[in-house]
């Protein structure tokens, strides 16, 4: 199962809207086949492993990180494929809470006379599949917020200079984090100020995450890098649902996908936005700010994981803070996170936090 989980993790950021599942088929103490869900979500891990094992799969054991599907989509159910292949035993790490499956896959296997065991390394499996499970169970993607700041929590000087607060090693780690998410998200202010590409670079030929910009009025640079690449690298724009078509049409013509969202208090309601992104299939979103978007997500309790890169320099109170005002008057109202781990990344420090 540990090998199946390791295989599944390789699919993070590559298989949405499907879960990043791993499967290992074993017989008489020998591994016959191993596979993960393919990029784009098809074929599933079980189908690929069974194809590799062939007739040798008859009488074997399949270790699968998530309950095999039991519904017909673009491909037949994996539970049926395991039965047809003559698998004798299936060991499943975690159950699938998708209502189209939710125990039906296990029932179908047992009804066919297959021995089924569940719960092996379940906690690790649920952690690896947290994005998919969040989309199914909470109706929104799992969100990681990344902040890169000075020691005193600043992201730019008073003049707006921000490149680079952290060093090359930290920036390389950020690209690796992007690659493990379905999408990278920024606010309109950051898009206007930096016009970033938001792509994964320096890691070879990898699938690029969806690039999301939250901009109520779609007042973004019309000739910038994001606009120019919208037809070749996915660009999704979360905007005010009441925005007139005249404001939307130019971006649609460039190839961007428009996501209409509710507005509350003059800002995009991020609960509405994340629900729409889940509906579109996203399971894990990597938010890179800026301060307004970060504060909105934190204030609405929508941040699951926090990655804080801190550089060993101080900028001072006149610099730009990492977070905009959140309107808190009591410490009890502040979102609180629990430290997961802390490590040196080049000359900088990375601390990873989870919602307490």
Automatic annotation (TrEMBL):
Keyword Zinc part of the UniProt annotation: yes
UniProt-listed CDD domains: Riboflavin_deaminase-reductase
Catalytic reactions on record: 5-amino-6-(5-phospho-D-ribitylamino)uracil + NADP(+) = 5-amino-6-(5-phospho-D-ribosylamino)uracil + NADPH + H(+); 2,5-diamino-6-hydroxy-4-(5-phosphoribosylamino)-pyrimidine + H2O + H(+) = 5-amino-6-(5-phospho-D-ribosylamino)uracil + NH4(+)
Gene Ontology terms: biological process: riboflavin biosynthetic process
Residues binding substrate: 162, 178, 198, 201, 288
Molecular function GO labels: 5-amino-6-(5-phosphoribosylamino)uracil reductase activity; diaminohydroxyphosphoribosylaminopyrimidine deaminase activity; NADP binding; zinc ion binding
PANTHER family found in the cross-reference section: 2,5-DIAMINO-6-RIBOSYLAMINO-4(3H)-PYRIMIDINONE 5'-PHOSPHATE REDUCTASE, DIHYDROFOLATE REDUCTASE FAMILY PROTEIN (AFU_ORTHOLOGUE AFUA_8G06820)
Listed name of the protein: Riboflavin biosynthesis protein RibD
Organism listed in the record: Pseudoroseicyclus aestuarii
